[in-house]
Amino acid sequence: MIGITEEYKKMIQEIVGDEFAEKNPNVVSIILMSLLIKETSSYLERIAGCLERIAGSLEKGVVFSMDDLSKPKPSKSFEEALRDLINCYSLENASNTPDFLLSEYLLECLKIYNKIIRRRAEWYNVQKESDRSVQNDQANETV
Fold first, then answer.
1. Does residue 57 sit in the same domain as residue 108?
2. Residue 86 contacts residue 103 (beta carbons within 8 Å)
3. What is the pTM of this model?
4. Which domain holds residue 60?
5. How far apart are the first and last CA of the chain?
6. Mutual orientation of helices 99-142 and 78-88 as an angle, nearest 10°?
7. Cβ within 8 Å of residue 1, ≥6 positions away
């Protein structure tokens, strides 16, 4: 928890500035406490999610492993989490673009990137197959 506290203190100082942080330690402490409470509530939500899955599994008679519990079910979609992350770090300010538009743009970029990667893999497989057929044709010509 100490590492998290120090990390948050640095983040708060970067946001509000060293001078403000030095002159207003109570404000920094309040912000720090609210961040730690939010972090704690996040862990509690994960634990509650795990307990719900255990109860559901037991009701159904399903056998589960601890590995199943280590993967918490996300409480929101990836797009919502990305939007919140952009908003949390105020990354929308530089372009004066709403966070939901930036998250939508980044998701579309990721979708296109994945599509291109798949097409590249398909193209290389086609190329390898055509190279093999050319080699086979050349081998047959020499026989």
1. no
2. yes
3. 0.41
4. 1-74
5. 74
6. 120
7. 36
